[in-house]
Amino acid sequence: MTISVAVIGAGMAGKAHAAAYRVAPTLYQSTLPPMRYKAIADINAELGAATARRYGYEEAVTDWRAIAEDPDIDVVSVVIANSLHLEVVRGLLDAGKHVLCEKPLSDTLEAGREMARLAREASTVARIGLTYRRTPGVAAIQRWIADGTLGRPLHFSGRYWCDYACSPDASMTWRYRGPMGSGALADVGSHLTYIAEFLGGPVKAVSGGAMSTVIPERPLPLGATVGHERAAVSEETARVENDDYAKFTAHLRDCDASLEVSRVAAGYPNGLNFEVFCENGAASFHQDTPSQVRLYLHDDHPATNGYRTVNLGSDHPYVQGGLPMDVAGVGFGQNEGFAYQARAFLEEVAGFPEEDSLPRNATFDDGLRNMEILEAVARSAEFNGKKVTP
After folding, report:
1. What is the pLDDT of residues 92-113, one digit of tens each?
2. What value does the CA radius of gyration of the chain take, rounded to a whole number of Å?
3. pLDDT given for residue 324 in this prediction
């Protein structure tokens, strides 16, 4: 058995998927079947070709249908604009491909529901990547909650602050189009929401929703844009349709969570931070120091109690045997999360028993649930913070 891989989308996250498939067989023991890195697809021919060369894929194509029609391709990552997910995923599943789709699942609930239905009826594996659940620090905190070290969560406080949109000169892209709730809330709030559920249990309701657009217009780019890169712009502008900032309270099974997201937080290129306060102590994670977490336990001596810094290493999830240097103090970050995600997906496609694999990737139903929560936040904001059940 050989697994042949393709990636649709050669932008920032597309490169992360392309690289992750290259790294995945080198994680842990070499138990995966032989891999073939077949194609990168992107409407920008130059970008697609450059990404294929960089990561050693055999070819670049400009139409995703070439991927769907290629009988040699088994596994496909879909890493394109949210509004395109339904059409592309439908075509890939109809063609018998295994599909790993980036979050959020789609741009509308209607499309998300249809994608979830397609996945349930498919003969192949369809999964969505919720990458931060595989961050060793986040997974370690979840383990400490589950095994009783920290015990039941009492309060979760999280924020995801980014600055990619803080300049009014940042050019107009697809990220700034769509209804309120499809901006910062969908982009980074989706991550923060599933992390809160990962640690505190399912969301039962949301309240206190509030959203704002603080930069109402943006200049149109003169050429193609990639990811969050700055581009040359024209004097013509277009209206920003969705949210730059959002906040809400999520009422989880085990506790309440206060959540805040922004794409205009100057000085925070990728600022995911949270604290969870529990029966037996507390823990916090900061994206700028991803190889560490902070831990506090009530059984510390009163004279010396307080947060301690834990350097993540081979005693913590995903690290032991998964990295070339799997010892505490050797840094790692978000890119490794994509590699763990790819490895888990390839193990499932290859038919590895679940008990002998990394935790499975989330289902499309999980992705739809994430969208339903964010839609409830948008409705809460529309009705001045009213409590809404997803």
Report:
1. 999 999 999 999 999 899 999 9
2. 21
3. 72
Q: How far apart are CA 246 and CA 162, in angstroms?
A: 12
Give the C-alpha separation, 69 to 71, whole Å: 6
Which phi and psi (to 5°) does residue 244 adopt? -90, -25
Residue with tokens 């390839």: 346
Residue carrying the six token digits 């904001």: 381
In what helix (H) or strand (E) does residue 53 lie, and over which residues does it extend? helix 45-55
The predicted model scores a pTM of 0.91
At 50, the amino acid letter reads: A
The values of phi and psi at residue 225, to 5°, are: -115, 150
Summarize the confidence of residues 45-53 as an average pLDDT. 96
Confidence of residue 227 (pLDDT cuts 50, 70, 90): low
Which helix (DSSP H) or strand (DSSP E) does residue 259 occupy? strand 256-262
CA dist., res. 106 & res. 218, Å (int): 24
Is the CB of residue 390 less than 8 Å from the CB of residue 203?
A: yes
* Per-residue pLDDT tens over the stretch 244-254: 999 999 999 99
Residue 217: predicted pLDDT? 96
283 Cβ contact list (under 8 Å, min separation 6): 141, 144, 150, 275, 276, 293, 294, 295, 296
Q: What are phi and psi of 379, to 5 degrees?
A: -70, -35
The average confidence (pLDDT) of the chain is: 94
For residue 158, give Cα distances in angstroms to 50, 141, 277, 284: 37, 14, 11, 9
CA–CA gap between residue 40 and residue 42 (Å, rounded): 7
Query: Are 361 and 128 a contacting pair, CB within 8 Å?
Result: yes
Instruction: Name 276's bridge partners.
Output: 156, 283
Q: Is-contact 143 315, C-beta < 8 A? A: no
Per-residue pLDDT for 354 more than 80? Answer: yes
Domains and CATH numbers, the chain: 3-131 (3.40.50.720), 136-330+368-382 (3.30.360.10)
Q: In which element (H, E) is residue 339 found?
A: helix 334-349
Q: Which two tokens stand for residue 199?
A: 């640690």
Please check the confidence at residue 330 and state whether its pLDDT lies above 80: no
DSSP secondary structure letters along 219-256: EEESS---TT----EEEEEEE--S-SEEEEEEEESSSE
